[in-house]
Write a structure and sequence with these properties.
alpha/beta, six-stranded antiparallel β-sheet, globular
Length: 674
């Protein structure tokens, strides 16, 4: 028995949102840029499972649906809609959560689902909660609004924002196949809302975990501790009694500390073992729990504290970095949740664990370890029917999920958010294994990029950030302040087409025209562009499959743009994939980046040749001809050549006259506008 689907409708950005784990896994890692609704999932789950939707407000309804709601009420007021028509539309505009429970597993305990009699032909049941405006109160609502119209600025939206709770109601129904049963609050045979809050439990580890290492913690003694401390500190006249009291408390501290940390049956053994599994650490970082009655209070807060080290070499928890404290908080919370779930075994149908942004304050290696351990850790606990949803903005965490299909990318399409399983970007493709590894392990930061640049090799990889900086300076753009992910993949950029489609962000492919002609063996070898018979670049052959080399050479910039949204690539001025390669500049059409750059910057390179001793051949001078073999003829190391370009341009400062190749500049200009 398991939760197979979580469906959310008309809630904030989640207008029509369905989240489903893989059949073989009950773990989902939800990723995506900021403001795509990751936290909203948790908020609505909490509202529905723990709070009967009491706090779901008018402002929580999707913006477009709010407008429809206002138009509907006005139409009803004008007698353009009947009450029955209004009723159906109000239901469709409501915020809603629907959870589908699959009980096809023969071992499922069907007694836990109180509404199974709906339809015996099916093996799942869906329980939904929604909060519409009560159609029976429409007349009352309009009457109150008209009476106090001025205080709401004459706007129905303002009235609904203030008075929503008085006119909205929570409805619940259960469905299986074609059979639907509306919840009746007077029917005592089911628990409240079909007992959904009793049979499905939500546990969360939120992003705000309250960890701090502030030595001046104003909450440190915000209990009876301060009163007991003050009392004991004033008892100087009864020193013998205090000595005896301290002795008794010290002995109790010792016994409690031993009981807390005993390696066989200590109270905190499980928690400490969990932390060891995630954070092996050193002896100095070893965690133990120490009783602290003697210096704090006899009752209440302060009786136990976390320390690092051991009894003889200890540091208080506040002396640890926030990263460790954050991870300790997560692990201790995990253990607490696991034990709570265990106590409800046989009483609860399913449990949902929601972990928000575990990466807070932690360095990459700690994120790697957590991501590597968390799924196997939960599986090892044999937790009863547990669905885990984790959210992250960390490429380091994503990179550890390369062997699973658990990653769900939340993509914002206009005003809607769509969850897409990342496996869709590589599943069934010819190079599936490569793409799966590359997208997660090597380039997971792509999932959070606002824009993407694909380049061929080391030279462009080193120079691209510098070219962006120069372009921003010359053209007054702000590409440097945008989150752009630059990826070097050779000239096989077309392999990432489905991934570009999944991300849906503006993508620039900067590649080489790679002209060639056939030799005596009927094989293509590189040649000058003027002699070319074809391009040998696989990406250009993919996107211009029927074009002669003359057409490829003469295409203007806009004719190298494609729309990928239709499942294939289609030429389009409004497309989000732009390809750019060498074009004629200064009466010369280059074949690669190196001869393109050298041809337009030849005078600058010759003038500043002393700054290129590591990368340029001594035979390069004013008389040298720049051709398609310039990289072989004059460049010692492409990577060093790129480094020397940046160093030379920086040293020369305002006296520099470096030019960016036209095809790259055009690409950056397009990217800046999109």
């Amino acid at each position: 028995m398991r939760i197979s689907t979580i469906y959310i409708k008309n809630y904030r950005l989640l207008e029509d949102f369905e989240l489903s784990p893989n059949d073989s896994s009950d773990f989902m890692l939800c990723i995506g840029r900021n403001n795509v609704g990751k936290t909203s999932i948790l908020t609505l789950l909490d509202e529905c499972l723990n709070n009967d939707m009491q706090k779901v407000s008018f402002d929580d309804i999707t913006l477009a649906r709010r407008r429809e709601l206002v138009r509907l009420i006005i139409a009803y007021q004008k007698k353009e809609k009947t009450l029955d028509e209004a009723k159906d539309t109000l239901l469709s505009l409501a915020s809603e959560l629907a959870i589908t429970i699959d009980y096809s597993d023969p071992s499922s305990d069907l007694s836990l689902i109180p509404v199974l009699s709906l339809d015996d032909k099916h093996q799942s049941v869906t329980i939904s909660l929604r909060k519409p405006l009560d159609y029976q109160k429409l007349d009352e609502l309009l009457e109150e609004f008209e009476a106090g119209k001025e205080q709401y600025g004459g706007k129905l939206e303002n009235f609904l924002e203030k008075r929503w709770y008085s006119y909205a109601s929570v409805l619940c129904c259960a469905s299986s196949g074609e059979v639907i049963l509306d919840y009746d609050s007077h029917d005592k045979s089911h628990g409240r809302y079909f007992g959904i809050s009793d049979i499905i439990k939500l546990y969360s580890i939120k992003a705000k975990r309250g960890v701090a290492n502030d030595a001046d913690d104003k909450y440190e003694r915000a209990t009876l501790s301060k009163y007991v401390h003050t009392y004991l500190g004033s008892e100087s006249d009864n020193s013998e009694q205090l000595k005896e009291l301290y002795g008794l408390i010290a002995e109790t501290d010792k016994n409690l500390t031993e009981k807390y940390n005993n390696s066989k049956d200590g109270i905190f053994k499980n928690v400490i073992d969990d932390i060891k599994e995630f954070i092996p650490g050193t002896e100095e970082q070893k965690l133990f729990v120490r009783s602290m009655i003697r210096n704090e209070s006899l009752l209440g807060y302060g009786n136990t504290k976390i320390f690092y080290g051991d009894e003889d070499r200890r540091l208080p928890e506040g002396h640890s970095g926030l990263g460790y404290m954050n991870m300790y908080a997560i692990i201790i919370k995990l253990r607490t949740i696991i034990e709570r779930i265990e106590r409800t075994r046989g009483k609860v149908l399913a449990n949902i664990l929601f972990i928000e942004e575990p990466e807070a304050h932690t360095h990459p290696h700690m994120q790697y370890v957590f991501a590597n351990k968390i799924k196997s850790f939960l599986n090892k606990q044999n937790v009863n029917n547990l669905l885990t949803i984790a959210t992250t903005h960390s490429s380091h965490i994503i990179s550890q999920f390369s062997d699973t299909d658990d990653i769900v990318f939340l993509r914002k399409l206009e005003s809607k958010v769509k969850p897409i399983h990342v496996r869709e970007a590589y599943s069934g493709k010819e190079h599936e294994a490569f793409l799966k590894q590359y997208l997660t392990v090597h380039r997971a930061e792509l999932f959070f990029a606002d824009k993407v640049i694909f380049i061929e090799g080391d030279t462009e990889r080193i120079l691209m950030p510098y070219f962006i900086k120069l372009h921003d300076k010359n053209k007054r753009t702000d590409l440097g302040s945008q989150y752009i992910s630059t990826i070097d993949v050779g000239n096989y950029m077309y392999l990432f087409e489905d991934f570009i489609r999944l991300l849906g962000v503006p993508t620039l492919m900067i590649t080489d025209i790679d002209t060639g002609k056939k030799n005596d063996s009927n094989r293509y070898v590189k040649c000058a562009t003027a002699e070319a018979e074809a391009t040998t670049n696989p990406t250009l052959k993919h996107y211009f499959p029927n074009d002669e080399i003359s057409n490829i050479k003469s295409k203007d910039f806009d004719n190298k743009r494609f729309d990928l949204s239709g499942g294939t690539f289609t030429p389009s001025n409004d497309g989000n994939l732009q390809i750019t390669y060498q074009t004629e500049q200064g009466s010369y059409l280059a074949r690669s980046f190196e001869d393109s750059f050298m041809s337009i910057n030849k005078n600058w390179l010759v003038t500043n040749k002393t700054l290129f001793k590591s990368s340029l051949s001594s035979k390069f001078d004013a008389s040298s001809a720049v051709t398609y073999t310039a990289d072989e003829d004059y460049i010692k190391s492409k990577a060093m050549f790129a480094i020397d370009i940046i160093n030379a341009d920086s040293k020369l400062g305002s006296g520099s006259s470096i030019q960016i190749p036209k095809y790259i500049e055009e690409g950056l200009e397009w990217l800046a506008k999109n």
